Amino acid sequence: MTAISDFILGRSSEPRLQAPAPGPGVLARAFACAARAPDHGLLRPWRYLVVEGEGLERLGDLFADTYGPEADEKILAKLRKSPLRAPMVIIAIASPVEHPKIPAHEQVLSAAASTTLLELALQDAGFGVMWRTGSPAYNPAVTEALGLSKQESVIGFIYTGSVISAKPAVPRLEPTVFVSRWPQ
């Protein structure tokens, strides 16, 4: 195995994050890595929004304000606080375009691969990362307020910052559980 494989095998989601967040240089390099995702047709069917500082509070307000009439105060408070769990949230957006040979679902997969490379690059730079979705990712009022077009979708809220404390190791599946040969 190589250092890259060892790094990937050590990857984990880190829910406990604090300042500092990645700076401009780290972000530029991480986004350059994200742009290396497999991308049939070189369509670049992804984009990202970086949210930090006061924007995190505004994002929490947006989550709460668009939740719906069934929300009680406890749910609304949780939604308002959720972006404050990290000093930076990067909103990963799948941005497929019409193409005669490359279907939209393939472009969404490319955007997810781009986001994975972004996460790995941030972790390689020493930052913790947590990919979250939840109801705000699928809420049309949220996506509209974020400026997404009708064909775009939020594929994740990427929380990033410095790890407060490492979490316990998560059991990992052995490949034999999810890999088989065909034909058998």
From TrEMBL:
Signal peptide: none annotated. Keywords: Flavoprotein, FMN, NAD, NADP, Oxidoreductase. Residues 22-161 form the Nitroreductase domain. Its cofactor is FMN. Gene3D superfamilies: NADH Oxidase. FMN binds at residues 11-13, 36, 40, 131-133. Its EC number is 1.-.-.-. InterPro entries: NAD(P)H_nitroreductase (IPR052530), Nitroreductase (IPR029479), Nitroreductase-like (IPR000415), YdjA-like (IPR026021). GO terms for molecular function: oxidoreductase activity. Binds 1 FMN per subunit. Belongs to the nitroreductase family. This is Putative NAD(P)H nitroreductase. It comes from Marinobacter psychrophilus.
